[in-house]
Amino acid sequence: MPKDASGPPRSLLVLGGTSAIGLATARRLIARGARLVHLAGRPSPALEKAAGELTALGAEVRTVPFDALVPESHQASLGPVFAAGDVDLVLLAFGIAGDQARDESRPLDAVRVAQTNYTGAVGAGLLCGAALQEQGHGTLVVLSSAAGVRARRTDFIYGSSKAGLDAFAQGLGDALYGTGVRVMVVRPGTVLDPGTPRGDARLTTTPGQVAAAIELGLRRGSETVWVPGGLRLVMSAVRGLPRPLFRRLVV
């Protein structure tokens, strides 16, 4: 039976269990009443440490072996999570930035960025979307990026992968419309560590600020969330720049 989606999620699945944004979001949702957290990622001490930290906040935490680069394993990894009980929220938080200067001369490394950020997300996103639809409720939050709005010379490999992910997530949201399941696309600017100098506040953010924006977006029923909010206007202007001007102004 469909569940009332107006309240905070009680159970969540974080794809990318060591993601700084994913963990910051989990902490906020635990404070609001989430009691079961599935952390999906490659088995590692970092994943176990993250699980321990969330357990200390009062949640039951289960680690799930998951590798974005092996889509044929996703059903075996994630199927048991949904079989064990309803999942109110799925946060697709995995991804890699790569190294643009290096990856341009090492195509296989560039392909790995694309496979992680796009191909892996397509497989996991479709699987989770279908599982949420089968249970009749839930939200899929997809971490996209402002870099996907218009890829710059300095990050076009990463930016193009996020552009593909963003388009996929929007389409999946349209496909699931009316089923009781919704998709929320989150477009952060450059995500900095909390102690890093901020630079232009219109373009940069931190994991904690992204988590706060996700929580607010969930309460509002948003389909798209920009972090910071003013980034929406900035990127709207950037999107419309003629290419010759864009090349001169944007690095």
Automatic annotation (TrEMBL):
A Pfam family matched by this chain, by name?
Answer: adh_short
- Spell out the InterPro entries in the cross-references: NAD(P)-bd_dom_sf, Sc_DH/Rdtase_CS, SDR_fam
The source's superkingdom equals Bacteria
Q: Which SUPFAM superfamilies match?
A: NAD(P)-binding Rossmann-fold domains
List the keywords (alphabetical): Oxidoreductase
Which Gene Ontology MF annotations are present?
oxidoreductase activity
Family membership noted in the UniProt record: Belongs to the short-chain dehydrogenases/reductases (SDR) family.
> What's this protein's name?
SDR family NAD(P)-dependent oxidoreductase
Organism lineage reads as:
Bacteria, Bacillati, Actinomycetota, Actinomycetes, Kitasatosporales
